[in-house]
Amino acid sequence: xxxxxxxxxxxxxxxxxxxxxxxTFSGMLEAFSTQxxxxxxxxxxxxxxxxxxxxxxxxxxxxxxRYPEVIDYIRGKQIRAGFAELLxxxxxxxxxFVIISGGLLDSVTTRLQDYTGRxxxxxxxxxxxxxxxxKLHSRWEGETExxxxxxxxxxxxxxxxVAIGDGITDLNMAMAADMVFARDYLAEYMKxxxxxxxxxxxxxxxxxxxxxxxxxx
Length: 217
Prior knowledge:
This protein is an alpha/beta fold. The chain has helices at 24-32, 37-46, 51-59, 67-74, 83-92, 105-111, 149-153, 171-175, 184-192, 203-215; strands at 6-13, 97-100, 121-123, 126-128, 135-137, 157-165, 179-182, 198-199. The protein has ten helices and eight strands.
């Protein structure tokens, strides 16, 4: 018998560029990495380097003594409108809200410290700082991803999985979900694959869509 609790619904959500208005992780890498960020980004874009390789190369080039600055970088970054209201809505209805991020756990938890009471879990890589440079650790590392988001989703039992995302790191999460809220690159990808998705601008749109669809079921 599976000991994991069975949830009727779970909402899985990306962090960078989804909860935050801007892509804070890539901005941090560009600001603090001693490697050429733009060169790594081009190699990832061309397929000559995996996303996992690019992220690890950039993160592990950051000196450990700059880690406090890395964490401070996230403070004050704008949260997308309606986020607090979505958390309230889901909490009221007993629906877990799970964040899956390819960014750094300390950065995500620092920015969301005012919301943690309504967040079921946050899954993201960690770093160690005992060497001269940061060392990246991820228990969900895939062949090409620092965080295989679909593998994280598979750790939960639910009848209906909702995914909210915006970018290239959210593709597998979207493919594993029953309902997908997509914007930007993820929306274009879903469209190109002929997959259904719901477009959204802010989290008020997400609340409105969920309210209508879940009331009808």
